[in-house]
Prior knowledge:
mainly alpha, globular, 9 helices
Amino acid sequence: TSIPKPKFIPTITPFLERIGVRLVVVKGMAVFVLLFWLLQPAIAQFASEQGLEGLKKGDVKYALKKITLAQRLVPANASYYWYEGIILRDQAVELQNRELAVFADNAFAKGTKINKYYPMNWIERLRLHRDHRALMENPAGNDTLLQWAEHIRTWNPHLFPVKLEYARTLAFAGKKKEAMLFAKQMQNKYPESQLTKNLIKDLEQGVY
């Protein structure tokens, strides 16, 4: 005698077909998620480029929207916080808006925390606190500015903008002789540099 087949067991073919369809859907979703994850840096870069193009046309809100999207897609990319900070800083200076200056400072500060070796957020935060102190509620003191300048120089000693800001910060903090000596050393290395000539002229005139 054969064992009777229980009536509650469904026929296998439709059951497998239903599972197969679900597996196909799951596999498709997994592939989509994987591709999106792999393409996030490219999408973020494209969004940031769109934002910068919009900024050239004067659309600040559009630019910030696209930069924010890039940050959400790749939050570990410090350059996107630099972009945001630059836009907000320029608006703060143009409008003399202290609230925007705070937002710019926050963007630069976040960028420095995400990547302490990336120099641009450090440089622009330094310049914001040094050159636009009237816009800051609590501008960094000379010791802090020098610490930032030393940090940037330690990790990026060969970058020309780093050297310029280091000399300017020395002068601003009252170390004018050291600043001039450093500027002269730059001039020996870059004798044709107009930026170095401008730096020395500023130091001679006591701009800082």
